Amino acid sequence: MTRTISIIPQPGKLEVGSGAFALTAETRIFASDASVPMGYYLARLLRPVIGFQLPGERTSTSPDTANAITLRLTPGSGKKRPAPESYALSVTDAGITIEAPRPAGLFYGVQTLRQFLPPAIESQTSPSGVAWTIPHVSIEDAPRYSWRGMHLDVSRHFFSVSFVKRYIDLLAMYKFNRFHWHLTDDQGWRIEIKSHPRLTEIGAWRTERDGTISGGFYTQDEIREVVDYAREHFITVVPEIEMPGHAQAALAAYPELACTSGPGEIAVWNRWGISKEVFCAGKEATFDLLEDVLAEVVALFPGPYVHVGGDECPKDRWSACDDCQARIQAEGLADENALQSYFIKRISRFLSKRNRQLIGWDEILEGGLAERAIVMSWRGTEGGIQAARAGHDVIMTPTSHCYFDYKHADRPDEPGQWGVIPLKKVYDYEPTPAELTPAEAQHVLGSQGNVWSESMPTTRDVEQMVFPRLCALAEVVWSPRGQRDWEDFKARLRAHGERLQALDVEYYRDQEIWPA
User: Fold this and answer.
1) CA dihedral 207, 208, 209, 210 (to 10 degrees)
2) 57 — phi, psi (to 5°)?
3) 240 sits in which H/E element
4) How confident is the model at residue 64, as a pLDDT?
């Protein structure tokens, strides 16, 4: 591969020819009936920058013109049925063809095509003197994992709808297909719940230690806007509503749902870390509110998953709470860990009745796992291994490799918190633990990067912590394991920096990739 080709993630099979195809004012886009929306998407992507319009046509046959971009759905049949998100891309003198079994594959083929164009294609203006050429290539490509995710915490710091949509744009470009939206925590409740308005009237606003007020929330119309936008980019939004811990913002709004052993008055927390204030597991009113909340969440998010957190739930209040102890006795539970399992299983049953699958951090293993629950393994790989061996699906996201709030390098002036995760460590990550048998390994859906925003008050902070590690993770979850090559990736990423600049991404200048 030449240095001028810097596709990320690396396609599964790529052959490069000697010529190039040039986009001109005469180039046309042809799309079969089901491919028409993707034809419009491609035209919208190219038109503002290249300076001329690419007219589109609907066709059920191959075009009779050579200067064309053709998008075609080819579902296949029998044993040769291709992978759902796969695509094939061909560029010759005659034109460009993208074929895929499903629209998602066409979309990913377009993302690859855009990276073959000069980086100026990503700019917001129409530059002069740019040759819009694409090298002759033949590509057959499909993802390694079905879960290719990125997370964003909007509770510790709130980010606008426009930024969330930009974040989705960037995820889509690198073929991620899951957006894990962390909407509630001790420091802020960010989703409008019409049946319980105090969650945002009170829970969305935090008095900082200097007396200033910070916060915000998304209206239900804004949530729908983001969900629809993500769907158009073949990304499923996974909402996270934290319970039973990380609930202080909700309890500030409804303090009667805290334990009897609590302080009485509760404010939205203005510190980081783990609050002892958790939902009381002994009060029926707790489940009444959470079921109301989840009913509205399910109506807003059509995807099959709801993340309920389940992590870092201190048991101090439960141990001293009359209601929680009464629940333990009435249900014949062994201890507070079993009470947490009762809590999660009850919520899981509620979601199952609404055709949603519960996801939780690996603490949901404690006391027994809810039926069909998916485990997100963050405290190393042990939780994922345990869940996979028990027949549960898992998403691997250990702090050791996938926490993008950690520093890029071990230097005192580096932004970030907790630890250090260099770019190469992300690139070297293997999501499927070697300890699993082939049958157990089938339960590893994939991996995702997590972005906790305590140290990221601005959107530029988020971008600097995420990039270029997102690029490395994209290759981990998409490309074949056997062809991963650090030196080749470095060369591609070095060239890819110009594209990130054209996108106005505030990426971290890793000194090994971009020496000062």
Assistant:
1) -100
2) -140, 145
3) strand 236-243
4) 57
Confidence of residue 516 (pLDDT cuts 50, 70, 90): confident
Under a CB-based contact definition with an 8 Å cutoff, are residues 417 and 429 in contact? no
Rounded Cα distance between 284 and 290, Å, is 10
pLDDT class of 265 with cuts at 50, 70, 90:
confident
Which run of H or of E encompasses 305?
strand 305-309
Q: Give the dihedral sign, CA 330/333/336/337.
A: negative
- What sign does the CA torsion over 167, 171, 177, 182 have? negative
Contact in structure between 401 and 381 (CB atoms under 8 Å): no
Query: By three-state DSSP, how is residue 180 classified?
Result: strand
**Which residue intervals of the chain bear CATH 3.30.379.10?**
13-141
With residues binned 3-state (H G I as helix, E B as strand, rest as coil), the percentages for the chain, rounded to 5, are 35, 20, 45
Q: Which tokens is 214 given?
A: 């910070």
- Based on its alpha-carbon atoms, the radius of gyration of the chain, rounded to whole angstroms, reads 24
Determine the residue type at 489. F
Which backbone phi and psi does 397 adopt, to 5 degrees? Answer: -150, 55
- β-strand pairing of 178-182 with 184-185: unpaired
pLDDT at 4 exceeding the cut of 70 = no
Distances (CA, A) of 122 to 116, 284, 388, 449: 12, 53, 41, 24
> Is 80 exceeded by the pLDDT of residue 50?
no
* Dist. CA 378–CA 398, nearest whole Å: 4
The string of pLDDT tens digits covering residues 369-395 is 999 999 999 999 999 999 999 999 999
Residues 6+ apart with CB under 8 A from 284: none
Tokens of 417: 């918190």
Q: Which two tokens stand for residue 82?
A: 């291709």
Locate 169 and state its tokens.
Answer: 């744009």
* The CATH classification of domain 13-141, taken from the options 3.30.70.2190, 3.30.379.10, 3.40.50.2300, 3.90.180.10: 3.30.379.10
Tokens of 399: 């702090």
- Per-residue CA distances from 290 to 29, 101, 249 (Å): 49, 40, 14
Segments of the chain assigned to CATH 3.20.20.80: 147-481
CATH class belonging to 147-481: alpha beta
Cα–Cα distance measured from residue 2 to residue 35, given in angstroms and rounded to the nearest whole number: 32
Quote the crossing angle between the two packed helices 459-466 and 469-478, to the nearest 10°.
50
CA atoms within a 13 Å half-sphere pointing along the CA-CB vector of 126: 9
Residue 324 contacts by C-beta under 8 Å, 6 or more apart in sequence?
A: 259, 280, 281, 282, 317, 318, 336, 339
Q: Which residues are catalytic?
A: 185, 246, 312
Contact 484, 431 (CB under 8 A): no
pTM score: 0.96
Using N-to-C axis directions, what is the helix angle for 220-232 and 161-173, rounded to 10°? 20
Residue 186 carries which DSSP code? T
DSSP 332: T
